[in-house]
Design a protein that fits this description.
The protein is α/β, with parallel strands linked by helices and 295 residues long. Among the domains are: 82-192 and 220-236 and 283-294, 3-Layer(aba) Sandwich (Rossmann fold); 238-277. 34% of the residues lie in helices and 22% in strands. β7, α7 and β8 (183-189) form a beta-alpha-beta unit. α9 (241-251) crosses α10 (257-276). The protein is globular.
C-alpha cells in the first residue's frame, strides 16, 4: 500500500475498528444508517505514512451526497461564523480573485464578495447549492478537479481537505490553478488534537478520510511547488466547551457520576472564562489554519 499523499510505501498501521460496530454507533448518535456508505467492509484501518506523516483511513470511504444532505439538517454543520473565516479574511485583499472549494451555502463567499473580491464557490451538496443560488451567490455544483483554463489569486477551503480520498490530486490541481505568488488557504481539524481522544464519529469514515498535523503540512513543501507561510491554531470556541470538558474527564479518568457532575460544572466555568479572553485564550480548539504560497 502507498501513501495517498506522497506515494511512499512506508506505512504503519495505527489502529483498526469493526465496521459493524461503527454502523451501530452512527445509528445511535446520528440516527443515520451508513451501511450503504461502508460498502460491506468488515474492518476499517487507520495508517500513518512515515515519510509525510499523513494519517489516512483505508478503505477510503468518501461520504455520499445523501450523507451530507442529511448532516446539513444539523444547524452546526454549515456555520455562518467560523474562526478560520475571519482569519482568512485578514489574508485576503479587495480585488483578489477567489475560488472556494466546499462552499456549503455560501457564508464565506458572501464575506469575500462584501470585501470587494471576485469570487466563485464550488459545492457538491446540491441542497446547499440551491440555498446559495436562492441568495444570489456564485456557487456551482462542480468538481474542483474538472476546472480547466482558469487562474485564481487565492484558493480557499475550510473543513474540506480531510474529506478527500485523493489529497495528492487536490494539491496538484491547486498548483495548476494558481499563478506564481498565488495563495492556498486551508482550514482543517488538527489531526493530533485533543478531540481524537474522544473517537468522534465525524473524524472517521465515511465522513473524514485523512488526519492532518502541522508536520504533514510542513512536508507539503517537499512534495508540491508551495512555500508554507503560516500555521495558526484555533482557540477553543464557546460551542466546544462541553466536548473539551468531556475530553478532560476522560484524560483524568473520572468515572464516579457524582464527582463527574462536579467536575463538569467546575471545568465548564473555567473554560468559559478562558474563552471570554478571546485572543488571549490559552486553550486550543479543534482547527488549524494554513497558508501556502505558490512558487
Amino acid at each position: 500500500m502507498k501513501c495517498i499523499l506522497c506515494q511512499e510505501e512506508n506505512i504503519l498501521l495505527i489502529k483498526q475498528f469493526d465496521a459493524t460496530n461503527h454502523i451501530m454507533r452512527w445509528k445511535k448518535e446520528f440516527q443515520f444508517d451508513i451501511s450503504n456508505e461502508i460498502l460491506n467492509e468488515k474492518t476499517i484501518y487507520l495508517y500513518e505514512c512515515t515519510n509525510c506523516k499523513l494519517q489516512f483511513y483505508d478503505p477510503k470511504l468518501a461520504g455520499s451526497e445523501h450523507l451530507y444532505t442529511y448532516l446539513n439538517n444539523y444547524p452546526w454543520y454549515y456555520m455562518k461564523e467560523k474562526w478560520e473565516y475571519q482569519t482568512a479574511l485578514n489574508d485576503i485583499h479587495p480585488g483578489d480573485k477567489i475560488l472556494e472549494i466546499g462552499s456549503g451555502s455560501g457564508y464565506f463567499i458572501k464575506k469575500v464578495l462584501d470585501k470587494k473580491c471576485l469570487a466563485k464557490g464550488l459545492e457538491t451538496n446540491q441542497k446547499a447549492v440551491n440555498i446559495a443560488k436562492k441568495n444570489g451567490l456564485p456557487i456551482e455544483n462542480q468538481n474542483f478537479l474538472d476546472i480547466q483554463d482558469a487562474k485564481y489569486s487565492v484558493i480557499c477551503n475550510f473543513q474540506l481537505l480531510e474529506h478527500l480520498s485523493d489529497p495528492k490530486a487536490f494539491f496538484e490541481k491547486s498548483s495548476q490553478l494558481l499563478p506564481s505568488g498565488g495563495r492556498l488557504i486551508i482550514g482543517v481539524p488538527n489531526g493530533i488534537g485533543w478531540q481524537h481522544q474522544l473517537n468522534l464519529l465525524l473524524d472517521m469514515p465515511p465522513h473524514h478520510i485523512t488526519l492532518w498535523s502541522r508536520e504533514t503540512m510542513e512536508n507539503i513543501e517537499k512534495l508540491f511547488p508551495f512555500k508554507l507561510e503560516k500555521i495558526l491554531y484555533e482557540p477553543l470556541p464557546k460551542y466546544h466547551i462541553d466536548l473539551y470538558s468531556e475530553y478532560l474527564a476522560k484524560k483524568i479518568f473520572i468515572k464516579d457520576r457524582f464527582f463527574l457532575r462536579i467536575f463538569y460544572k467546575i471545568s465548564k466555568t473555567i473554560l468559559r472564562l478562558c474563552v471570554a479572553l478571546s485572543s488571549h485564550n490559552p486553550i486550543l480548539g479543534m482547527g488549524i489554519y494554513v497558508v501556502f504560497r505558490k512558487i
